[in-house]
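Possible regression after last week's pipeline update?

I re-ran a chain I had predicted before the update to compare outputs. Posting the input and the new output here so someone can diff against the archived version. Not blocking, just want to make sure nothing changed silently.
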Amino acid sequence: MTATTIDPKEAAHFGTLAAEWWDPKGSSAMLHRLNPPRLRYLREQIDAHFGGDQTSFTPLAGKHALDVGCGAGLLCEPLARLGASVTGVDAAPENIAAAATHAAASGLAIDYRAGSVEGLSGETFDLVTSMEVIEHVTDPAGFVRGLVGALAEGGLLVVSTPNRTPVSRLAMITVGEGSGRIPKGTHDWDKFLTPDELEALLTAAGMRVIDRRGLGFSPAKGFVLSDDLSLDYFLTAVRK
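New output (post-update):
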């Protein structure tokens, strides 16, 4: 059997949220608010790495993209609209079912699979993303190795995760989960990784981090890209 970094309790927790994943006012409302700055950051990194036309609507045309921990497809669908051939992998079969149903209704052909990144059997992708996932796995180092193993030569890897700081504990657990804006039990602050810790895992797996960016919150604008990494952050990496 292929080893897996899936935590069954985490998969079950997120599987219970599947029915509301596409409801911008439901239990995944926070993810809907995160998506615009996520996409801005991804587009920026895609254009810089692949050297495409910054005015193109399909900068990923001809590219294969993988989103690991895809949930019900909030990132997979925009990647498909950017021109990529997209595969989405998630530990919760309920999420995959919701993702496939929504993609079909949207006229998008996305390859959704229930399972783990370790089960991809040697397939590689030009772009690999994993957003707010590594803090939920059983073995972060093994998970990073799985992401890197799925990356094609010359490919781009983008990971995001909460930082382990007092700011993230207050915002995501005390306020977020305490107020019900984030479902209770979603986060374990002790499993959050600092940027240096995550970069060390990427480096050990043969990657070189080329960009760090924060995801902050503005009362006036909502979630925004920021130089402040204390709440949540992105790391972009390429092979050494």
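Follow-up from reviewer: compared with the archived run. The longest strand covers residues 151-162. Marking as no regression found.
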